[in-house]
């Protein structure tokens, strides 16, 4: 499978094609895609999804995909790397959390977003601003960044809520999304609290997760949190004290103990 490598922190593409020319591929970056017009199939990780004008897709480095255009399609791409995602911290933490949750929530990657008319109108306008900035990306990186954060907030509030109905209690995706959404709130990730949320006994909940994932709930939470912490540390823009506070930890020493724990 072909893998595209992007070394620039952010790139913007805006183009129309009658026939898609790229083979099935993945990449080392994230892609936020707006279908401005047209229809066809978007094949994501082997799953065909019918697309139409106004749909939005978010893909991560682990996703393989390609398009099959049914009619001429106008695409706008925002392609960004981890370096761009974590370029700012501090007051931007909450919106970075929104992007992290969207990126990790697999159901958004698979099916895309079908936005209500008022939200779609706003999203189209934001994409128009981004396209207008694309010829001078280095100069406009901050402006593009703020548009991206605004898009993430709109997309997050349009995600389907994960209910704890009988048909979804055993849906691992719902459990994963709960973890990703609450990774900054340690008290909400206790087995007893999570089991209660999904209307299950604590012992059954832990056993169910391990049986279906091959790892313990505690280990999954630990590994996912460490991945996010590693991104913060690699960016060099956040102190250990600030990272600890962001993840609800006592102090920097508590943070280091968690990182070093196997």
Widest sheet, order of strands? 2-9-4-7
Number of helices: 11
* CATH overall fold name of the largest domain: Jelly Rolls
**Proportion of residues in helical segments:** 40-55%
**Any guess at the CATH architecture of the largest domain?**
Sandwich
β-strand percent reads 15-25%
- Going by CATH, the homologous superfamily of the largest domain would be Regulatory protein AraC
Provide the structure class.
alpha+beta
Give the C-alpha Rg.
Answer: 19 Å
From N to C, what is the helix and strand string?
EEEEEEEEEHHHHHHHHHHH
Structural write-up:
InterPro entries: AraC-bd, HTH-like, HTH_AraC, RmlC-like_jellyroll. It holds the Pfam family AraC_binding. GO terms for molecular function: DNA-binding transcription factor activity; sequence-specific DNA binding. This is HTH araC/xylS-type domain-containing protein. With 262 residues, the chain is α+β, with helices and mostly antiparallel strands. It has two domains: 156 residues, Jelly Rolls (Sandwich); 89 residues, Arc Repressor Mutant, subunit A. Helices cover 47% and strands 19% of the residues. The chain is built from eleven helices and nine strands. The strands form three sheets. A four-stranded antiparallel sheet has the order 2-9-4-7. Strand 5 and strand 6 form a beta hairpin. Helix 7 packs across helix 8. The longest helix is centred in the middle third of the chain and has 21 residues.
């Amino acid at each position: 499978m072909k893998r595209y490598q992007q070394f620039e922190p952010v790139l913007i593409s805006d183009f129309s094609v009658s026939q898609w020319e790229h083979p099935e591929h993945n990449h080392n970056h994230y892609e936020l895609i707006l279908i401005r017009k047209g229809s066809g199939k978007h094949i994501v990780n082997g799953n065909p999804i019918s697309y139409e004008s106004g749909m939005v897709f978010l893909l991560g480095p682990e996703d393989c995909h390609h398009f099959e255009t049914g009619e001429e399609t106008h695409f706008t791409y925002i392609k960004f790397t981890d370096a761009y995602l974590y370029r700012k911290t501090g007051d931007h933490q909450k919106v970075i959390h929104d992007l992290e949750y969207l990126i990790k929530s697999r159901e958004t990657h698979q099916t895309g977003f079908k936005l209500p008319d008022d939200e779609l109108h706003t999203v189209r306008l934001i994409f128009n601003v981004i396209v207008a900035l694309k010829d001078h990306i280095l100069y406009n990186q901050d402006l593009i960044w703020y548009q991206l954060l605004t898009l993430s907030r709109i997309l997050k509030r349009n995600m389907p809520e994960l209910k704890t109905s009988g048909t979804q209690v055993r849906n691992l995706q719902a459990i994963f999304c709960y973890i990703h959404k609450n990774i900054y709130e340690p008290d909400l990730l206790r087995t007893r609290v999570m089991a209660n949320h999904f209307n299950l006994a604590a012992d059954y909940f832990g056993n169910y997760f391990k049986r279906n994932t091959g790892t313990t709930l505690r280990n999954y939470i630990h590994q996912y949190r460490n991945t996010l912490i590693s991104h913060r540390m690699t960016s060099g823009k956040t102190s250990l004290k600030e990272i600890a506070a962001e993840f609800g930890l006592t102090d920097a020493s508590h943070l280091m103990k968690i990182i070093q724990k196997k």
